[in-house]
Design a protein that fits this description.
The structure is a single chain. By secondary structure, this protein is an alpha+beta fold. The chain has two domains: 1-84; 87-234, Jelly Rolls, CATH 2.60.120.40. The chain contains one helix and twelve strands; from the N terminus they run H-E-E-E-E-E-E-E-E-E-E-E-E. The chain has one helix spanning 2-84; strands spanning 89-93, 96-98, 111-116, 120-121, 126-128, 133-144, 155-162, 165-173, 180-191, 196-201, 209-212, 219-227. The strands form three sheets. Strands 3-1-12-6-9 form a five-stranded antiparallel beta sheet, with no helix packed on it. Strands 4-5-10-7-8 form a five-stranded antiparallel beta sheet, with no helix packed on it. It has a two-stranded antiparallel ribbon with strand order 2-11. A hairpin with a 4-residue loop joins strand 4 and strand 5 (126-128). The radius of gyration is 45 Å and the shape is rod-shaped.
Length: 236
């Protein structure tokens, strides 16, 4: 009897086992599907992080380049300031009268009292700006009517020019014998680095310019007030 009962229950147990096995396989498949889904999500996150990392690397490199540019600019500015010590100035005067002056040629102020930065050339009378900035210039011109001298003009008309362009004038006229007259002008001007500044005597009826070492009434001076990157915004 027990044998027959076992034979009857055997198919039932076999079906239950198969069902359990199928259920386990289904669970495994579901776990595999979930793992694949997680893997896909993880790959997407990795791709996003890699892209973000590339963008961060680009941004970091750009910032490094900007820092390098700023450092170079600061070093260049530091070098310029070390070279000129942050100041440019000069004062020179004419120690003797000159004759046979050629129109539109620089007056050569031959005696130098100050030449900080060595931008004024006492051999040519020309100041060459070593830095772009705002400068102050002063011109004084003496006139004296001396009888029996070889001075052919007692009317002095000097002009301050920048790269040949007239800016301001200084005029002096000695009408009477031994009269001492002096004309002067002062200008504050934006000057580009490399620009040349000088004074010339406009000949209107004569070719002479009065000066004496003892009196020192004919002079040319200038100084850098402050440096600028550009002068375009200062003109107008």
């Amino acid at each position: 009897m027990w044998t027959n009962l076992f034979l009857l229950l055997l198919p039932i147990n076999s079906v239950a086992y198969e069902n359990n096995e199928l259920g386990l396989q289904y669970e495994i498949l579901e776990e595999i599907r979930e793992m694949k889904s997680n893997e896909k999500h993880l790959e997407e996150r990795v791709m996003k992080l890699e892209y973000a990392n590339k963008e961060n690397v680009k941004e970091i490199q750009q910032l490094r380049n900007e820092i390098s540019t700023c450092r170079n600019a600061m070093e260049a500015g530091k070098s310029r300031r070390q070279e000129y010590r942050g100041s440019v100035s000069f004062t020179a005067y004419l120690s003797h009268s000159v004759t046979n002056i050629v129109h539109n040629t620089p007056v050569v102020y031959d005696t130098v009292l100050l030449n900080d930065g060595a931008a004024y050339d006492p051999l040519t009378g020309v100041f060459t700006a070593p830095l772009t900035g705002v400068y102050l210039f002063s011109v004084s011109s003496g006139s004296k009517n001396l009888p029996g001298s070889n001075l052919t003009q007692y009317d002095v008309f000097t002009r301050l020019v920048v790269d040949g362009v007239h800016k301001l004038s200084a005029v002096a006229e000695s009408k009477n014998v031994y009269d001492d007259e002096q004309g002067s002008t002062t200008a504050i001007l934006p000057i580009q680095k490399g620009s040349r500044v000088w004074v010339f005597h406009q000949i209107t009826g004569g070719h002479s310019l009065f000066a004496e070492d003892g009196e020192r009434v004919t002079s040319f001076a200038g100084a850098l007030l402050y440096e600028t990157e550009s002068i375009a915004h200062l003109i107008g």
